Amino acid sequence: MAHTTGGDAEVPPTDRRRERGRARTVVAAVLIVVGALLAPVAAAAAWAHTTLTDTDRFVETYAPLANDPAVRDFVTDETVRVIAEQVGIAQLASDAIDGIIGLGTGPVATQALEALKGSVTEGLESLVRSKVSDLVASEGFDTVWTNTLRISHVQLTAALEGDPDALVGLGDDGSIGIQLAPIVDAAKQMLVSDGFTFADQIPSTDRVIAVAQSDALPAIQRGYDVAVVSGAWLPWVALLLIGAGVAVARRRWIALMWAGIAVAATMTVLVVALAVVGAVAPGGIVSSEIPAGVVDALLDAALSPLRGAAVLVIVGALVAAVVGWVAGPWRAPRALRGFVLIRARGVRAAAGSRETAAH
């Protein structure tokens, strides 16, 4: 029978425990839901943090593109274009023909030589293309490509931090790209070593392959500081919230199961979102001047680490959910635990019998 003090009814201990239990359940649910919703955001932030700040990881991510045929062809085309512009191959061919004509040729020979200017220009460009193709197809191109990525990442980071001396910038058109200087320098050295002295005229260049061009790019610069900071601690916050939710719950195994299911669900949404980005991003983010094959290779290289991390988290979350279910209070897991326990006892008993028989 309940007693009263001062006119207020005393709450029975059972009701107080029930209320505290409900409060713990609500708090646990909120913590787990918030942590699960934060999980994909944390994964994306950690990916952005690593991509934007870790040059070695950036190089490791994009280094395999050196062996992609579409990327090789594109790099060859852009390098040949730069060399042709810097050297002035058409003018070089014209000067050579004019020099021969200046030595004294008849009208017919002069006309024939004038007609050859286009062919000589094409021949020189074909020669340069052949040498650049040899460079890009060689084993040494891996080193050249690595240097290109390293320089580009350093300049990209400087541009995102607002360094006015950065060679790679986010201009008014939102463009950003990869430095061609290491590749052009390597091609120049190959041409000169093969006896093509005109390659000495190739100057150092700050030419950039425009990889991306979109109104969304300046937003990357504005969000750079956020990504750098949040990527370092946001994953730990998500993990702490989920862990706290499980710890606060009255029935921790059940909470663990639902936490695993929730995280697996939100990370699956992230994987689907990445697939959508891979499908629609080429039209709005990447420069239209880049061939479709190169766009696909770039996006796949960029998103693969995040996609792989998301899949690993999904697997881990599902394992946690299974563990929570197996340890839960339902009839099926209880029967499963009993079966495993009986089998384990049987194995131990059989082992003991064999040991006794051996003695």
Question: How would you explain this protein's 3D organization?
Answer:
The structure is a single chain. The chain has twelve helices and four strands. It has 359 residues and is mainly α. The chain has a domain at 20-54 and 223-335. Strand 1 (4-5) and strand 2 (8-9) form a beta hairpin.
Shape: elongated
Strand order of the largest sheet: 1-2
Count of separate DSSP helical elements: 12
Please estimate the helix content. over 70%
Distance between the termini: 67 Å
Give average pLDDT, whole number.
79
Radius of gyration: 33 Å
**Percent in strands:** under 5%
Structural class: mainly alpha
One letter per element, helices H and strands E, the order comes to EEHHHHHHEHEHHHHH
Task: Please mark out the parts with pLDDT under 50 across 5 or more consecutive residues, or reply none.
Answer: 170-174
| Number of separate strands | 4
Largest sheet: 2 strands, antiparallel
Write the layout of secondary structure elements.
Blueprint (H helix, E strand, L loop, with lengths): L3 E2 L2 E2 L3 H41 L1 H8 L6 H19 L1 H14 L4 H31 L3 H20 L14 E5 L1 H13 L14 E6 L3 H6 L1 H25 L3 H33 L7 H35 L4 H28 L1
Antiparallel strand pairs: 1-2, 3-4
Helix pairs in contact: 1-9, 1-10, 1-11, 2-6, 3-4, 3-5, 4-5, 5-7, 6-7, 9-10, 10-11
